[in-house]
Prior knowledge:
Elements: E1 5-8, H1 14-23, E2 27-31, H2 42-49, E3 57-62, H3 67-74, E4 81-84, H4 90-100, E5 104-110, H5 113-118, E6 128-133, E7 163-165, H6 174-181, E8 185-188, E9 193-195, E10 198-199, H7 201-211
Parallel strand pairs: 1-2, 1-8, 2-3, 3-4, 4-5, 5-6, 6-7
Antiparallel strand pairs: 9-10
Helix pairs in contact: 1-7
GO molecular function: phosphoribosylanthranilate isomerase activity
Catalytic activity: N-(5-phospho-beta-D-ribosyl)anthranilate = 1-(2-carboxyphenylamino)-1-deoxy-D-ribulose 5-phosphate
InterPro entries: Aldolase_TIM (IPR013785), PRAI_dom (IPR001240), RibuloseP-bd_barrel (IPR011060), TrpF_fam (IPR044643)
Amino acid sequence: xxxxxxxxxxxxxxxxxxxxxxxxxxxxxxxxxxxxxxxxxxxxxxxxxxxxxxxxxxxxxxxxxxxxxxxxxxxxxxxxxxxxxxxxxxxxxxxxxxxxxxxxxxxxxxxxxxxxxxxxxxxxxxxxxxxxxxxxxxxxxxxxxxxxxxxxxxxxxxxxxxxxxxxxxxxxxxxxxxxxxxxxxxxxxxxxxxxxxxxxxxxxxxxxxxxxxx
Length: 214
C-alpha cells in the first residue's frame, strides 16, 4: 500500500513549516492571494521554502493568477507545483502548465456528483485534481473556510488524474474521510489552525498522526 500524501496548506511561519516537515507532510502549500488571511509574498515563500528538504513538494496556491504573478513566483526557484484555486478553465490550466513548466493542480469545487464528473475536462490540462467543498455564493475566499462536501459522492467514480481531497478536514474526521473516499492525498488548511490564518504546531502534528495511525 502506497503511503498517504499529506499537504499542509496556508503555511506562513518557520515554526509551522518545521512542524509540517517533522510530522511527515509530503507537500507544503503557500497561499499567494492578497484577500486570504494566509497570504504570503513571493519573498516569504522563498525564505520558507529554503528550510524544506528537497523530497517535500512546495506548492503555490493561486486564484486566477495573471502571468506576471506567476513569473514572479517562478523566479523564486522555490516551487515544485502550482495549484489553481479560482475559475481557471482547462485551456488556461494547460497554458500555465506549458508556459511555466511546472505541474499544475486544479481545485474542483464540489457540491454534487455533476461537479466531480465535470472535472474530466481537465484531463490533459492539469496534473492533479483537488476536490474541495463549494463555497457559498458571494464568499470572499474560494477555500480555507472549513466546509466539507458529501464524501460519498467520490465512491466508485473513475478519476482520470491523480487526485486529493480537501475541504473541512480536521483531526477528528480525517480518518473517516480517507476510509470513505480512499483518497491518496489529503489537504488541510483551516483544520489545523487556532484562528484564521494562524497555524497551530500541535494541530499539525495531531492531524498528521490521525491521518496515518501507526
